[in-house]
Amino acid sequence: MRTIALIPIARTTFDIPFASEIFQRTQTALSQAGFVLSGPSELVTDSSKVQEIIHQMDKTPHDLIILLYCSFADSDLAKQIVSETAGPILLWAVPEEPGGGRLRLNSLCGINLTGHSLHRGGYTYDYLYTLPEDSAAIEKIRVLANAGYAIRTLKGTKIGKFGHHPNGFDSCIPNQTGLENVFGLELVQIELDTLFNRVRKISDHSIDPLREDLNHKLDGLNDLDQASLNGTLKTYQVMQEFSQEENLKGLAVRCWPEFFTDLGCAACGAMSLMTDQRIPCSCEADLNGTVTQLILQTLSGEPAFGTDLVHMDMEKDTAVFWHCGLAPLSMADPKVKPRGIVHTNRKLPLLMEFTLKPGGVTIARLSEANRDFQLVFGKANMLESEKQFSGTSGVVRFENSARKVLDTIISNGLEHHFSLTYGNFTAELATIARYLKIPTLEL
Q1: What integer pLDDT is reported at residue 239 of this predicted model?
Q2: By CB count within 10 A, which of 131, 268, 330, 395 is most buried?
Q3: Which residues of the chain have pLDDT under 70?
Q4: Class of residue 62 by CB neighbours under 10 A (exposed 0-12, middle 13-18, buried 19+)
């Protein structure tokens, strides 16, 4: 559930009983839609209660501020509230039918005046001009509140980075200062030797429950090198420990070559399991990839998968997203049981092998192709398909043609990693970008 700070603004020289009715109807409509409401219980008609309102908003985290103009009012109250709070802002006015008599509310003029002031002040905002019972209005509020929740969730979030990106992978170069300034994210650097030393101290016995659980979920585990399999499972346990100790909400992992050469196992299976536990992981220490996954996971409430675009079929108008084997098991097509396999190049376990389940997906990337942040996103349908390559993969059909999507990716120099989650959250992504003042690019 998302929390809305609902601030009903009015002026006593207008029809206060009618204004109060609009406020009550709005409260009812939002509550019935499943939102948690905070804010004053009565109309705000002067500035005497503004500091009290702001104090209450600070105490109760909110995802969206609705300035409900129950009648005309100037911009003073709104400017005070907006200047001392954070989050998406919605100005809401209600229409009233002309009848040749008194203009009872004049709320449209109120949001017009306020919108001018906020725009002059450099604030981003949205607006509605409709009655409280409008279903389209509720849907717009849902998008804004969900985007606001994602923005709020990112602030103060810690992301762990194990090791550093490989040479030649410019798409994984970290921008710690930018992530701190724009998103409020904090980076926790952990060296691979520190991780490996803790993994080596884990006993085989301690991972027995995990092995037993995975034997029910995966075929083929008994066919793998058991010492290497244990290494991946111990890595998962240590990643869990680091996440709890450091309060990490996402991980960016240098997955090769050291996991294979020094630890004798693959990181992929551990990252798959972590992502299913809502600690999204990206390979090749791709920090922006992890941030993208975290955004998508927050919006959808489900895991997000960091993946490569590896094939385009222009005749069938399809594309294949794939990675070695780190997709979360919850994304597997339920018709075929996943398998535990070895890395096709390094010949060590554990990797997950399955085809992604069918359904609508959102594909996104926090890009720095232009050296500044840009939010790239698009919609696609994950199709029911046979296995495309070893590892985890799925066939998609984009909303735009495959040729146009590929042209957008290559001509704009986008990164090779994308993230996807199930559901359509493109409206929320556009909203997030607008409020954080990041340009967008649609696939």
Answers
A1: 98
A2: 268
A3: none
A4: buried
Look up residue 371 and give its amino acid.
Answer: R
* Whole-structure pTM value: 0.96
Q: pLDDT digit string (tens) for 100-117?
A: 889 999 999 999 999 999
Structure tokens at 138: 């509720």
What does the pLDDT read at residue 1?
87
DSSP 130: S
Distance CA 443, CA 440 (A): 10
Q: Which helix (H) or strand (E) element contains residue 435?
A: helix 426-436
Q: What is the pLDDT of residue 75?
A: 93
Specify the residue for token string 């996991």.
259
**In the chain, what are the domain boundaries?**
3-154, 158-442
Give the per-residue pLDDT at 59.
87
Angle of the 426-436 helix axis to the 135-154 helix axis, nearest 10? 60
Q: What are phi and psi of 285, to 5 degrees?
A: 55, 35
Please state whether beta strands 36-38 and 3-9 pair in parallel, antiparallel, or not at all (unpaired). Answer: parallel
Alpha-carbon gap, residue 4 to 85, rounded angstroms: 13
The third-level CATH classification (topology) of the domain covering 158-442 is: L-fucose Isomerase; Chain A, domain 2 (3.40.275)
pLDDT of residue 197: 97
